[in-house]
Request: fold
Amino acid sequence: MSHLYEELDRRDTAIGELVLRRRRVPGLAGDEPVYEIKRDDELLMSSLVNDSELALAQRAIPHVGDGIFDVLVGGLGLGYTAWAALGFERVRSVRVVELLPEVIEWHREGLVPLGAELARDPRCRFLQGDFFVFVTDPSLRDLLHPPGGYGAILLDIDHAPDAVLRDEHNSWYAPASLARTAELLQPGGVLAVWSCGGPQEGFQQALEEVFPDVILEDVTIYNPLADSEQTDTIYLAKRNGSIPIPTRAAGSRSEGESSQKGRPRR
Reply:
């Protein structure tokens, strides 16, 4: 099979060397080009396999309580989660927090398929920064977050709770940080977290210490590049009223949890 590709950009970033490329894959994508983001030698995401990014918004937003609301997205990627969220009539605005300014540039310059559409949508706003700081730093509450809270917070940054892209992310998956994040949700709001592969009991237990309602949904996708199916997990946690005080120390992780880098995302 002939794989013809063009490198659109290559940058040294906070998480390693990032490459944006466009490929044509005869027999798989027809005449449509395939856009891919690689970190060093690792394929992070592909426009050919975007079901999980879409499902993150499509599975979470219907669970949000009544009314019009704002959405916070952690991780811009190729823009599919933000785009899917904007497709719901009840969504007033979407804020996307992205660590890498290079990825935001790709969207604003129209180098990725949804970039120009998202950049010109008045309901969509890109914010450059660390999502995990953004949702846990009390000094940012009044400055950057809507007074009534978010209807949904959608996170798709790490491969999984035990396979993070940066060690600094580890502490967010513990109850103390989850509780601070939950405080940014309006009553009836939903936190949704995407994870590669099957469910992890430790993270589910951490969510259940903070949220009264936690459900896990499988998303089975076919990856034509690997000619195989993969089942990922979306954690959905709903806020109802007050947030309980976590029983574990801040920054602690469940027994047996560890940071395992290098798990293939797609």
User: Anything to note?
Assistant: Residues 247-266 have pLDDT under 50 and may be disordered.
